[in-house]
Amino acid sequence: MAIGVSDELLGTFVPIAVYWLYSGMYLALDGVERLDVYRLHPREEEAAKNVVSRGAVVRGVLVQQAFQVAVSLTLFAVVGDERGTEQKQPSALVILLQFAIAMFVMDTWQYFMHRYMHINKFLYKHIHSKHHTLVVPYSFGALYNHPVEGLILDTIGGALSFLVSGMTPRTSIFFFSFATIKTVDDHCGLWLPGNILHALFNNNSAYHDIHHQLYGNKYNFSQPFFVMWDKILGTYMPYSIEHRKGGFESRPVKLSIAEQTKTD
Questions:
Q1: How far apart are CA 187 and CA 206, in angstroms?
Q2: Is 139 in contact with 184 (CB distance < 8 Å)?
Q3: DSSP assignment of 168-228, as one string?
Q4: 3-28: buried (b, 16+ CB within 10 Å) or exposed (e) per residue?
Q5: How far, in Å, CA of 190 to CA of 211, rounded?
Q6: CA 52 to CA 59: how far, in whole Å?
Q7: Which residues of the chain have pLDDT under 70?
Q8: Rounded distance, CA 128 to CA 109, Å?
């Protein structure tokens, strides 16, 4: 088998393996009760507010990943070298530039498609609301979407990022694995100390948790990397991390001010 074909297969299946391994790590942490102090919601809220079972979530994610595999293999077949030769890797500087371009393209596509699915009442009711049945997000529910949404937001968004950036299949292995880790982390429901992704990105688990709440449903659409489009277009809801009994809470700043005024 040619190396190029191997890179294409790895670019397709490694991010899926990363998804389940990384979310599995969070699932293991979820079983450690002493880490409940880092949860953004009390443990009992998941059962009370989420209207879909974890088994249904796993099945839904597997369906979306099947679509991703089909589109990814088709894309690589269309843009690949017919001779099956390995594509030469560019310099490290060029790869970093390709990463930056791909991140920008993915963020831009997902922001506008995600926001439109909230604006369009039909799309929200019949498509996007499926993801919002997880009011209390958790790691392996990150890609729990309607198949149509998964195709439009994630699969097409990923394909555009790959094509516009001009990255090779080998580079895509690392980019899509990183994007997968970031997406899972944003849905983990934990505010763990020392999380390097929280230090590097303002778009994090607390930021996205705001969006999953009723009061934040029309805010914080940006995903998975930056918050620029929310800030530019007025859909950014600032928040603060507050202590609650037994853990943390991601709270809108306006609500915090109102509560503080009431207390005073």
A1: 9
A2: yes
A3: -HHHHHHHHHHHHHHHHHHTS-B--TT-HHHHH-SSSHHHHHHHHSGGGTTS----SS--H
A4: ebbebbbbbbbbbbebbbebbeebee
A5: 15
A6: 11
A7: 1-5, 81-86, 254-264
A8: 16
